[in-house]
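Methods — Computational structure assignment.
A single polypeptide chain was analysed. Its primary sequence is given first, followed by the predicted tertiary structure written as structure tokens.
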Amino acid sequence: MLLGVFIWGISHLWANGDLASILLFGSFSLWSGLKFVTLRNNSESALVPKLKWLWRDSIAVIVGAVVYFLVFINHGQLFGVGLALN
């Protein structure tokens, strides 16, 4: 999740260069990048995945993919800037 927020923030920083975008997307990218590094270095609490949680992860992936697809298709109507699909 944090890596996705980082990639999302960096991609929006790349596309938008105004001050408001730098503050918004830069703060999200900085927070998620720092959190990703600090959580990755915390190897003391290594969690062992359990199979009974597999269905929850599957549902999260499916719902996330559907939401991503809907935002991808309707990005222009939602945010006023269409995606360049060339």
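Note: The chain is about 70% helix and 0% strand.
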